[in-house]
TrEMBL record:
It comes from Streptomyces ziwulingensis. PROSITE patterns: ANTAR (PS50921). SUPFAM superfamilies: CheY-like, GAF domain-like. InterPro entries: ANTAR (IPR005561), CheY-like_superfamily (IPR011006), GAF (IPR003018), GAF-like_dom_sf (IPR029016), GAF_ANTAR (IPR012074), WH-like_DNA-bd_sf (IPR036388). This is ANTAR domain-containing protein. SMART domains: ANTAR, GAF. Keywords: Kinase, Transcription, Transcription regulation, Transferase. Signal peptide: none annotated. Residues 168-229 form the ANTAR domain.
């Protein structure tokens, strides 16, 4: 994904109202069809829209300091957000704060003695909370190579953007779950049809046989259905044929 993919998203300037820019951003976000696509779009929009932002990333953090970078605009962001052992530090300099507050800012990594970020050439950062519960935190962080890059305007725009990202992410997640549910239903229907033919029984009996085999083998129903559909041309084994 490159900046050219976002040419229809106006940059914040004297000629582009914030509302117009965020409306265009919201359209971009809601046009994505998967959560991963939403996250990739979000980090590029952060660079395009937040005053001072040069790079951006989205990471998820567990309470136990385990973390994973989900989307990034540059490999240097991935380096900054992925390795919890960098410089002996167990967590990103801003993320611990986001369990209790929605925004955290690093003015100057050198002045604030943050070796890992300064070694990567990242002087300032603005972290914004996307999602949080008791055990997991999802964070969007914008970075700049100069100190004190993020002012109050950047914070305000960032909070508005993360609100749109959060809504779009929820929407994409629901769409993905519904799509998966429909695929699972179709898969189970195919498996039931195969068993009806193999075992010479009606739909209710075939489905009951499928459920019993799933419980007996301690296998999820959809995984067993996928196995049956994938091997329905092979010679019959035991498995679901045993009643």
């Amino acid at each position: 994904m490159t900046a050219s993919d976002f040419t229809d998203v106006p940059r914040l300037s004297a000629d582009a109202e914030l509302a117009e820019a965020l409306t265009a951003a919201a359209r971009k976000l809601h046009d994505t069809v998967t959560p991963h696509g939403t996250l990739r779009t979000a980090v590029q929009l952060a660079v395009d829209l937040l005053p001072g932002a040069e790079l951006a990333g989205i990471s998820v953090i567990d309470r136990g300091s385990r973390r994973e970078t989900l989307a990034w605009t540059d490999e240097v962001v991935r380096s900054a957000e992925t390795d919890p052992r960098a410089g002996g530090r167990e967590s990103h300099p801003l993320w611990d704060r986001l369990w209790t507050v929605p925004v955290a800012k690093l003015e100057d990594s050198i002045a604030e003695n943050d070796g890992p970020l300064s070694e990567l050439g990242l002087r300032s950062a603005l972290s914004l909370r996307l999602r949080a519960d008791r055990r997991r935190l999802t964070v969007l962080t914008a970075y700049a190579r100069k100190p004190r890059a993020f002012d109050e305007d950047a914070t305000r725009v960032g909070r508005l953007l993360t609100a749109h990202v959060s809504m779009a992410l929820d929407s994409a997640t629901v769409r993905e779950q519904l799509t998966e549910a429909m695929r699972t239903r179709d898969l189970i229907g195919q498996a039931t049809g195969i068993l009806m033919e193999r075992l010479d029984m009606d739909a209710a009996g075939a489905f009951e046989s499928l459920v019993k085999a799933s419980q007996r083998e301690n296998v999820k129903l959809r995984d067993l259905a996928r196995r049956i559909v994938g091997t329905h041309d092979a010679p019959q084994g035991r498995g679901v044929n045993e009643r």
